[in-house]
Amino acid sequence: MSRDERFLSHAQLAELAAPLQQYLAEECALEIGAFDAQALAAFVADRIGPAIYNKALADARIALDTRMELLQEALWELERD
Known about the structure:
By secondary structure, the protein is mainly α. The chain has helices spanning 10-28, 34-78.
């Protein structure tokens, strides 16, 4: 995946670096630098990003379908005999 196709911008990766470093230090006793933390965040996002994105789309579809059903019901209630 090219840099242009990544899910996170440089700014977003930089923002995620500190919490990732803290997590790895506390949970795994592993100290990594900011550059490595950004690279790890990019790697994880590139690998799981599509699955998360597709799940979000599926959730949006369900929400939209529910709203459309409610709208359809409201329109049927407006019909005159």
